TrEMBL record:
Its cofactor is pyridoxal 5'-phosphate. It catalyses: meso-2,6-diaminopimelate + H(+) = L-lysine + CO2. Specifically catalyzes the decarboxylation of meso-diaminopimelate (meso-DAP) to L-lysine. It comes from Phenylobacterium soli. GO terms for molecular function: diaminopimelate decarboxylase activity; pyridoxal phosphate binding. This is Diaminopimelate decarboxylase. Its EC number is 4.1.1.20. PROSITE patterns: ODR_DC_2_1 (PS00878), ODR_DC_2_2 (PS00879). Belongs to the Orn/Lys/Arg decarboxylase class-II family. LysA subfamily.
């Protein structure tokens, strides 16, 4: 469910017409709904609660929002106020999570190439765990921790070698991917880590991919993860946390609905029944995707004599990369749908490459220059992946709550853009 609905013939975000935001803030602009963010988080939290994944000893599952999906501090704050933690992959993301008020003990640090500097920063911050992706990384964390006189809480990220489906660029759980270690290697590393001066192994982690719409591969992976916890404990090793990653998909358009948080939680409850451990999750997309839209304006309608009809927008691939990068489908809705038969358009941006195409052959209500449209489901991996390619200004972000809105990242200015650069002394 989301809070982007037509009211009196135009698209609103909660109680605010998108046309008002476009007029006052300009386009392109990302717009997020607080109510949707909150709802998605609480639905997930309640589903996991209902599946018996809490215990007196370990408390509630840790829901660490994947900051990479939407790293805007106001968005993070909205979730942190409900008790969300943060799954981070860089020092920058740790700093964002802290700025949003996420307590360090709810921050999980993932990623295959954490630098010594980032590891030191995470240890000084006191994050809940560093998810270790390889043996060389385990050694580096041990060294850094010893240098700082600390013991790093670590979880070993396991690559369960399952095929999660979805786009190859975002599938992570096969042995050929760069993420994590095998079960056999994890067992050896866990035992080594238990004897290392700078390490305190607290658990195991996995994350098999993103936009997963079939629970079967997750169930297979999670079943193996449970077995791993039991094997480690059987060897007398201490295991207190099981981090099952993120990856649950969302409906991007009118497809049969993918499994939702309730199905996901029920499956996990079944697989994990009776396992005494603290659970952690790293959802990103399922919380944020349908909580945001990218609003753009039509620059030109270019009807070519050869037959194609291009809708040239003021938004481009640098603002929303997913269609160019993953051939992703985003529903496109006119902000004030005009009457009349649908027209078939190719929707493109102004960037000078053919990849700057949001979609081809899309039937939409008739559009004219100046009209606004909204790319739906753009709240995850939208603004977070945007860039200044073609020296286009970074898009502003707006957070709506009821009938008010706030510009939570103003549009960049050309001064900002140019001020970052320096002349070389010989120029
Ligand atoms: N945990 C880890 C370790 C991850 O690598 C990711 C996402 C997540 C959690 C969150 O996954 P989610 O619940 O959002 O599926 N840019 C791509 C998606 C890349 C996902 C990368 N890792 C896209 O736009 O589709």
């Amino acid at each position: 469910m989301n809070h982007f609905e037509l009211q009196d013939g135009e698209l609103y975000c909660e109680g605010v017409p998108l046309s008002r935001i476009a007029r006052e803030v300009g386009t392109p602009v990302y717009v997020y709904s607080s109510a949707t963010l909150e709802r998605h988080f609480t639905v997930m939290r309640d589903a996991l609660r209902g599946a018996g994944l809490s215990s007196e000893k370990w408390g509630e599952p840790l829901i660490a929002f994947a900051v990479k999906a939407n790293s805007n501090v106001a968005v993070l704050k909205t979730l942190a106020r409900l008790g969300a933690g943060a799954d981070v992959v860089s020092e920058g993301e740790i700093r964002r999570a802290l700025a949003a008020g996420v307590p360090p003990e709810r921050i999980v640090f993932s990623g295959v190439g954490k630098t010594a500097g980032e590891i030191a920063f995470a240890l000084e911050t006191g994050v809940a765990e560093l998810n270790v992706e390889s043996e060389p990384e385990l050694k580096l964390i041990d060294e850094v921790a010893q240098r700082l006189g600390k013991r790093a809480k670590i979880a070993i990220r396991i690559n369960p070698d399952v095929e999660a489906g979805g786009h190859a660029k975002i599938s992570t759980g096969k042995a050929e991917n760069k993420f994590g270690v095998s079960f056999a290697e994890a067992e050896r590393l866990y035992a080594n880590a238990s004897n290392a001066v700078g390490l305190s192994p607290v658990g195991v982690a996995c994350h098999i991919g993103s936009q997963i719409t079939d629970l079967a591969p997750m169930e297979a992976a999670f079943t193996k993860m449970r077995g791993m916890v039991e094997r480690l404990r059987g060897q007398g090793l201490h295991v207190e946390r099981l981090d099952l990653g993120g990856g649950l998909g969302v409906p991007y358009f009118n497809q049969p609905d993918p499994p939702g948080p309730a199905d996901y939680a029920a499956m996990i409850g079944r697989v994990m029944a009776g396992l005494d451990i603290q659970f952690a999750f790293e959802p990103g997309r399922v919380i944020a995707a349908n909580a945001g839209v990218l609003v753009a304006a039509v620059q030109h309608v270019n009807a070519r004599p050869e037959g194609r009809r291009f809708l040239v927008l003021d938004a481009a691939m640098n603002d929303l990369l997913r269609p160019a990068m993953y051939d992703a489908y985003h529903d496109i809705r006119p902000v004030r749908p005009r009457d009349g038969a649908e027209v078939v358009y190719d929707v493109v941006g102004p960037v000078c490459e053919t990849g700057d195409t949001f979609t081809r052959d899309r039937a939409l209500a008739p559009m004219a220059a100046g009209d606004l449209l909204a790319f739906m489901s753009a709240g995850a991996y939208g603004a977070a992946m945007s860039s200044e390619y073609n020296s286009r200004l970074l898009v502003p972000e707006v957070l709506v709550r009821g009938d008010q809105y706030a510009v939570v990242r103003p549009r960049e200015t050309y001064q900002d853009m140019l001020a970052r650069e320096r002349p070389a002394p010989w120029l």
